[in-house]
Amino acid sequence: MSIATLFRMPTAARWAAATLAVGLLLGTAGCAAEEQPAAAGPTPRPTQTARPTPPPPVLAPLRGTVAAEGADERPALAAKIDNHEGARPQLGLERTDIVFEELVEGGLTRYVAIWHSDLPDEIGPVRSVRPMDPDIVTPFGGIIAYSGGQEVFVDMMMNTPVVNAVFDFDDTGLFYRDDVHESPHDVIVHAAELVRRNALLPPPAAQFEYAVDDGEPTSVAEGAANSVVQLRFSDARWPSWGWDAAGASWLRSQEGEPDLDAAGAQLRASNVVTLLVEIDDYSFEDIPRTLMIGAGEAWVSSGGSTVHGVWRKDSPAGSIRLVSDLGTPITLAPGNTWVELVPSSGGVEIIP
Q1: Tens digits of per-residue pLDDT, 213-239?
Q2: Poorest-confidence range of 76-80, 213-217, 258-262, 309-313?
């Protein structure tokens, strides 16, 4: 009903209509008031649970690469590996973390090979120890496997803090002679079982510094590109390393022929560390002893480049320190490393 219609009604009717209209308005207002929602406060933000920062990856101490789960907790295993032609191809060299090549009698070489991040079931053939081996092995701790040796050299190794596993003294089945090689180049070690039996020994400390977070190794940052590292231990042993850009690694040859593993693949390394060393030819008659405590020239090859510097080792338990000619600590590329202990009477040639 409009206001104009209301005033055209008689007085009594107008009062009744007005009363009815007011009642309707009040009722409508009351309903509206009941339906009106309560004033809304600020909308609470959903609670966000703080995400824990993931721990940084654990790096393998002897490679500088991400360690496989649990691998970083086991001890290192070193072994004296034969490099006679009759011992080739060796078992497990392609899975080493670090290999040292050293001069022995007759101008030949042998290896002290170290496994930690990647452990084969079997390694070998193993041979006897030499007088420089305690100074090489001691910084790694863990275990050393070998076939035996002169009593004086075995005693020297037994006097280190490293657990000795010796073929000549073994009656537990850790060693056996295989059917592939002829004696004496045929002694094989059950490597994984040997480490399992000594699982409570501590893991090794890092021996070298590695480029991390996509940083360049020092050879790339300060050195010069080259294609070949040619070495000479003697007239009988002259290994070389050629850069394989496609595989981003150095490929090993011996006496001009590819050096192959048991599967027929050429041995390779991320880093080749060449140390010029002095040899003691007199203390042990015809057995040359590489002098590991001291200092000398060094060439470190990584990433297709080589940097020159110096090396130093101050004690049997101390690691080898590498410093470039610019005075900076040399970092390696993450990966495996071969250390070439070239006698000062030999030769080192870095070929562009």
Answers
A1: 879 999 999 999 999 999 999 999 999
A2: 213-217
CA atoms in the 13 A half-sphere facing the CB of 103 = 31
CA distance 313 to 214: 28
Separation of first and last alpha carbons in the chain: 107
Distance CA 251, CA 230 (A): 12
Q: Token pair of 46, please?
A: 């959903």
Give 16-57 pLDDT, tens digit per residue.
333 333 333 334 334 333 444 444 555 656 666 667 777 778
Q: At residue 332, what are phi and psi to the nearest 5 degrees? A: -100, 165
Distance CA 109, CA 324 (A): 27
- 79's CB contacts (< 8 A; 6+ apart) are 112, 113, 115, 123, 124, 126, 144, 145, 146, 189, 191
Q: Are 89 and 111 in contact (CB under 8 A)?
A: no
SS3 sequence, the chain?
CCHHHHHCCCHHHHHHHHHHHHHHHHHHHHHHHHHCCCCCCCCCCCCCCCCCCCCCCCECCCCCCECCCCHHHCCCEEEEECCCHHHCCCECHHHCCEEEEEECHHHCEEEEEEECCCCCCEEECECCCCCCHHHHHHHHCCEEEECCCCHHHHHHHHCCCCEEEEHHHCCCCCEEECCCCCCCCCEEEEHHHHHHHCCCCCCCCCCCEECCCCCCCHHHHHCEECCEEEEECCCCCCEEEEEECCCCEEEEEECCEECECCCCCECEECEEEEEEECEECCCCCCCCEECCCEEEEEEEEECCEEEEEEEEECCCCCCCEEEECCCCECEECCCCEEEEEEECCCEEEEEC
Q: State the residue for tokens 């050879």.
A: 219
pLDDT of 279 > 50? The answer is yes
